[in-house]
Amino acid sequence: MAAKAKAKDELLALANIGPAMRRDFKLLGIDTVAQLARQDADKLYLKLSALTGHRQDPCVWDTFAAAIHQAQTGEAKPWWDWTAVRKKRATKGEDVTAFRSGTAAAAPRRKPGR
Question: Quick check: 36 pLDDT over 70?
C-alpha cells in the first residue's frame, strides 16, 4: 500500500504542472513541493535556459512563479496571473526573461525538428 501512495507525484498534483514542466523540474533537481517552495522563479528560469542551451518561453517563468506561490502558500492561481507581474517587472528592467545578448536566456530558441 505504501508503494502506491508514494507513486503519486506531488509536483504533478500542483495546478499548472503537467508532464513537460515536471520534466523541467526533474532537470532542475526539484523532486518535492518542499524543495520547490524554497526556489526563486528568476533563478529557475535562468538555470533551465542554461541547462537546455536555449531561451525559454517567458510563460515558463510565469508557471514557475505560480507553482512556487502554491508550494509556499497552498493557494493555486493560474499561471497567467503571473504574466502581469512579469511585465510590470520588465518596465523596471527586472525581467530575466527579456532578451539580452550574451546571456543564456538570450540564446535562440530551437525550432522543433532541428
Answer: yes
108, with CB counted inside 10 A (0-12, 13-18, 19+), is exposed
43-50 LR contacts (CB < 8 Å, sep 24+): 45/96, 45/97, 45/105, 46/96, 46/103, 46/104, 46/105, 48/24, 49/104, 49/105, 49/107, 50/104
Q: Residue 61: inside a domain, yes or no?
A: yes
Let me know if residue 2 belongs to a domain. Answer: no
Residue 1 within any structural domain of the chain:
no
Confidence of residue 85 (pLDDT cuts 50, 70, 90): very high
